[in-house]
Write a structure and sequence with these properties.
Blueprint: E1 26-30, E2 33-37, E3 40-45, E4 49-54, E5 61-66, E6 78-79, E7 86-88, E8 92-99, E9 109-115, E10 117-118, E11 123-129, E12 134-140, E13 149-154, E14 161-162, E15 168-170, E16 174-181, E17 186-187, E18 192-196, E19 240-246, E20 252-258, E21 266-271, E22 283-284, E23 289-291, E24 295-303, E25 312-316, E26 337-339, E27 342-344, E28 350-353, E29 358-359, E30 367-372, E31 378-383
Parallel strand pairs: 3-9, 10-17
Antiparallel strand pairs: 1-4, 2-3, 4-7, 5-6, 5-8, 8-9, 11-12, 12-15, 13-14, 13-16, 16-18, 19-20, 20-23, 21-22, 21-24, 24-25, 26-27, 28-29, 28-30, 30-31
């Protein structure tokens, strides 16, 4: 290049800088089922799911939003804190993107989560037959979810088979286990069990060789008919109840006891794992225990000399201490406060008690409550 005075000036490149688009955000989804196709994640869950977001560039900042697609560009995005999972309890759609040090944004990653509703209980109808000494039974469900089937087992729930809709005949008293499985939009139902009593086979009376005079019984009390089937009555163990205590330190203490006062010997078996059959696959309850993570507790009562009772369950919500009000930013807990017996929170927030039940934010009793704000944060609130 020539200057005004005719001298030559040369320009040499010093450095070539490339501003590449960041890679998409990755999602780790803990749910009942999960699948991924490119940047689209889909999952089903019950009763809740956890989504953890990561990016290959540790200097990149991840932003996310929960709701419909950001079509108008006016939706608010929140900064994601690494290592802190987003807890989801209702059907939701999460959008995430990463912004690198040069300010360039990645394409969006989408996580669609669908909450499943548990299938209902299985009903049983029995027909005893004293002539043959057998009892037949049929199984049904009031509202069988689409694609779901009834499964059952006799004497054990470990090796259930699919029910074909016909009669099943038993020649000995036993316990029948049954549940609903395989619904496309429903979670597997709880395992129900029923005591099916088989009557003794009636004996044909012998024909006398010659007439005999009837005799009056010496005991005026009529003897019981041994051919009548013994009624189940209280032959099956009862139910259990749960008592949850949250001391506000990120730990919930779980206490399990019989629903009714018992005078005889009994055991309680429990589990915090899904897909476990009680009491066979459970843990013997010896006293109250602590839970440091949210989850489902299932328990069953076994009274001495009786089959196990109905499996009972409770959802335990545990919110770690770092998400308490005094440690969450203004976008989360800063807008959550207590006014008497009411919780004031941003519009769209949801309030739950420690058992996982959704409650109204007004007229609350003293205790610990969990507020889920629209930005996906969980805030622990105490009413005293």
């Amino acid at each position: 290049m020539a200057t005004a005075d005719g001298s030559e000036v040369e320009f040499w490149p010093i450095e070539k800088v490339m501003f590449a688009t960041p890679a998409p955000v990755k999602a780790d989804v803990k749910a009942t089922t999960a699948a991924v196709s490119g940047n689209e994640y889909t999952a089903t869950f019950y009763p809740m799911a956890e989504v953890t977001l990561t990016h290959e560039d540790p200097r990149a900042t991840i932003y996310y939003m929960i709701g419909d697609d950001d079509t108008d560009g006016n939706t608010r995005w929140y900064e994601y804190y690494p290592g802190r999972p987003i807890v989801i309890s209702e059907s939701s759609r999460i959008h995430a993107r990463a912004v690198n040090a040069q300010g360039r944004s990645s394409v969006e990653t989408h996580v669609t989560l669908t909450r499943l509703e548990p299938a209902g209980a299985v009903q049983i109808k029995t027909v005893p037959d004293e002539k043959t000494g057998t009892t037949s039974f049929t199984l049904s469900a009031e509202n069988l979810p689409e694609g779901a089937k009834i499964w059952f087992g006799v004497g054990s729930a470990d090796d259930m088979i699919e029910y074909d809709g016909g009669e099943v005949v038993l020649d000995a008293t036993d316990i029948v286990y049954a549940c609903i499985r395989g619904g496309a939009q429903s979670a597997d139902g709880a395992v129900c069990h029923y005591l099916v009593v088989v009557p003794a086979k009636a004996q044909e009376p012998e024909k006398p060789t010659e007439p005999t005079e009837p005799t009056e019984p010496t005991d005026p009390t009529e003897p019981e008919d041994p051919t009548q089937p013994e009624q189940p009555g209280d032959r099956v163990s009862g139910r259990v109840k749960f008592e949850l205590t949250d001391d506000g330190d990120g730990v919930v203490k779980v206490k399990i006891s019989p629903e009714q006062t018992l005078t005889g010997e009994y055991e309680i078996w429990y589990t915090t794992k899904t897909g476990v059959t009680l009491p066979e696959g459970g843990t013997l309850y010896t006293g109250a225990f602590d839970m440091t993570e949210s989850g489902l507790v299932m328990a069953v009562l076994v009274e001495k000399g009786k089959p196990a009772g109905q499996t009972c369950e409770v959802t335990v919500w545990v919110i770690p201490t770092p998400t308490a009000i005094d440690s969450v930013g203004a976008d989360g807990a800063g807008n959550v406060r207590v006014d008497g017996d009411s919780i004031i929170a941003p519009e769209g927030s949801e309030v739950y008690d420690v058992t996982g039940r959704r409650v109204r934010p007004e007229g609350l009793r003293n205790g610990i409550y969990i507020v889920r704000t629209p930005d996906g944060n969980a805030v622990k609130v105490a009413i005293r």
